[in-house]
Amino acid sequence: MHRIARKPWQTGMVTSNTPPAQGTRLDPWFGAYAQRAHNMRASEVRALFAVASRPEVVSLAGGMPNLADLPLDDIAELTAKVIATEGMTALQYGSGQGRPLLREKIVDVMRLEAIDAHPDDIVVTTGSQQALDLVTRIFIDPGDVIIAEAPSYVGALSVFRSYEAEVEHVHMDAAGLVPSELEESIVRLKEQGKRVKFLYTIPNFHNPAGVTLSLERRHQVVDICKRHGVVVIEDNPYGLLGFDGEPLPAMRSFEEEGVVYLGSFSKTFAPGYRVGWVVAPHAVREKLVLAQESAILCPSHASQMAIEAYLSNHDWKRQIEEFRSMYKSRRDAMIAALSEFLPDATWNVPEGGFYVWVKLPPGLDSKTMLPRAVTGRVAYTPGTAFFYDGTGADHLRLSFCYPDEATIREGVRRLAAVISAERES
Ligand code: PMP
Predict the structure, then answer these.
(1) Compositionally biased, Polar residues: which spans (predicted)?
(2) In this model, does residue 287 exceed pLDDT 50?
């Protein structure tokens, strides 16, 4: 005998005050979700991946690093050796804080940005994306305010949304986040009775804005946040990918108590191992380790040991040099193509990283234009992805990290054709 399946709200599992909302009857569990699940949505970047990965589309949308120059044979050998000689450890559970040897190596990496940390200051995470989740988890109650640049990293905004934070955007100019606006915002929000918990900032080669916070402003930002009791979350996955000159000192290099620093191997080595880290003052670190243990018990031992082997046996600094010069010539190709094909738009010239932030000619909307761009065989990320309230349609982000120079030029040429059709319609 067949029984008719009952929907959860017919079985009493879901209370009557949480009826399925309009348009959700296809999901029988809709009424059961926590509010934070309702706040989660597919990012515009993710929705794009499906279309942008079609071979006929030039994708200037995603932020995937170009791994073509990595010495895969060497890496395969190193990794195989880790399993062959230390497999019982590599495949075992480990410390929630991460392996001591890897933390020692991370100290060396951070020295390049003037950070003088101790291995004990570090918590290894599953990419810096997980670090963002842990940091938000330990600091944010629903309704708490996070200050972030306008625009800001789409993946951070999605974490903030899932923890029901409010986000206050602060403007940037060519020298990065504007300190006077930061202070005004903190003061105003506090007067309104809001709890301002942290500033989330990407000081180097910003995603998506491409700008870098000047040294003078780094000091001002830290000083303002200290005076107002606001933690600085310094998210720095691109800091070693500057095209000219030496990296600027990280804020963590001159402020230990007030800064929580996030690092990653995703852009300077490879994202596939999913290894990042946090540097935090003692008490914060203890909370992060507890949060980490409850989320994942420990970061992947095998990944950590593969990265240890890479850093110990490979000239990783030279590899970063190679990445820098490869991305620099891609940046140059993109800027040249923009000048050639899109003279009516405006953009900044990033001094490192992966992204150019383009302001469209007046009257255009990057979000509504996107389907037509994909039809025109080019993809980008609409500016709306990078603002908490979905504004920013007058901008778009172009990534120059993954396609080669000729493909970048063709992508910008196609984009210009889409824009000119848009203006004529
Ligand atoms: N922060 C920023 C600013 C990023 O651009 C990214 C990746 N695009 C991340 C964090 C997350 O990187 P991962 O988890 O790979 O370390």
Answers:
(1) 12-21
(2) yes
pTM: 0.92
Which of 301, 295, 263, 255 has the alpha carbon at shortest distance from 279?
Answer: 263
Please check the confidence at residue 324 and state whether its pLDDT lies above 50.
yes
Best mutation site among 49, 67, 109, 128 for ligand 1, i.e. most ligand atoms within 8 A of its Cβ? 128
pLDDT digits (tens, 9 = 90+) for 141-200: 999 999 999 999 999 999 999 999 999 999 999 999 999 999 999 999 999 999 999 999
Q: Looking at this protein, which amino acid is placed at residue 211?
A: V
**Residue among 44, 153, 303, 354 whose CB has most ligand 1 atoms within 8 A, to mutate:** 153
Q: What is the mean pLDDT of the chain?
A: 92
Distance from Cα 27 to the centre of ligand 1, integer Å: 31
Residue 49's pLDDT is 66
- Cβ–Cβ < 8 Å for 126, 357: no
- Reported for 325-331, long-range contacts at CB under 8 A and 24+ positions apart, including other chains, are 325/243, 326/66, 326/69, 327/66, 327/241, 327/243, 327/352, 327/353, 327/354, 327/400, 327/401, 328/243, 328/244, 329/405, 330/66, 330/400, 330/401, 330/403, 330/404, 330/405, 330/408, 331/243, 331/356, 331/400
